[in-house]
Amino acid sequence: MKSKPFFKALLINPPGVALAYRNAPFGAEGLSSPPLALLQLAACSPKHTKIDLLDLDLDPKDWEARITSKAIEYNPDLIGITGDTPMAYMMRQAAQAARQGAPDALLVCGGVHASLFPEEMLQDKNFDMDLTGEADMTFQQLLSGVDPASIPGAAFIDENGEIRINVRAPLIKNLNDLPIPRYEAAQVTRYKGSYFLEDLSPSAYIESSRGCPNRCSYCNRTLFGGLFRPKSPERVVEEVFYARNAGYAWVHFIDDAFGQDPDRLIAICALLAKEKIMIPWTAFSGVHADLDVAEVYRSMAAAGCRKTAFGIESGSGEVLCGAGKQTDISAISKSVNAADAAGLETIGYFMLGLPDETTKDIDATIRLARSLPLTYAKFVIVMPYPGTALYNRWEREGRIISRDWRLYLFHNIENPPYRHPHMGVAEIRKFYFRAYRRFYFRLGYIWKRFKHALAKGSLLRELKIVSKIKWFKS
To answer: Which residues of 386-425 are buried (b: 16+ CB within 10 A; e: fewer)?
Structure first.
């Protein structure tokens, strides 16, 4: 493969979120924010490269035809496409559509799934190259004209038609060295987010760290590894300020281990309060459920945090232990109650069908959800994504029955791609609907939400959302 600099690049995000939640019983409102990975790549691009972004999650209608039209109109010499495991087939469809519009462009893929399966992504010749691992700097090298044979993590088809995969680059040690994501590159005003996770739109994702030292069996750490690599509080606040000035009205901290270092989190909050950057935010993921220091939640509330999420997963301590989750039920309860006392809306995430789970354990999960002061609860079925310890275990045990990646969706309750050790599909499906009904169909909860929505002026919107939800199996 010849090396050359690239002057026009088109970055594409296929409509994975839009289509994944389209038929989900409880996917009435999916979160809609610009794809952070592509904004980061845009920021890392050399000055000579003009970048355009096509985010099809904004509108999935006729998305393949629109890719072709955009490629014809923009005429890029490089097209980059990202996506996770359930989107793998869409990435290849996107590449085919892009090839029709720009036949001479270099087609590059990246992301979690592409990092796991470079041979799969390259074998049908839809893609010319796959950038595996953290691609921030390798993408910059590619655009600058570095020989692909010398780019760490690059996988490509060589002159002999063979797939060549370079050793990945080391993880970026100091994330402060990365440029701030180019938040203004997105069509900012078009993003309308989830009512459950934000009260104002548009919203932006912010990554204050990478890497998670925990060993949860269902979590994929393919890209960012297990070493916690935080940005400095000053850099985090700078990114919040930048996003606000780019037109965003809300931010979501999405890193895997946002609460890993409570002292750093308190320092971030102190700087946000000091600089008076009064933009509301959500600790969207990675806030440890065993983070039980009330001071942290008070600091978060004072700094503009309005909502915080907890990856609770199960009401059984044994199931949590078996899944590698380093917490216990009492710590979870103490943490959620502390956040509630600080005035934060609380969101609990639960997984049904973890590997050692029985129907008795799921009942315990539902009881725990009902006992906690949660504003919202979200229940999904466990999904053994490639690259996780759970996938490897179930593959060894012969429980993975399909590698049709389109089935790997958290709300796929009809035909999940595995056989559970203790429960059948019908049983898991029954508990999925039961969990939602038993949490939300409580008179006390309904009355509390009614008063809250009335005071907030959002009653009609909440009623509209509720009306879209499929509370019973059809």
So the answer is: bbbbbbeebeeeebbeeeebbbbbbbbbeebbbebeebeb
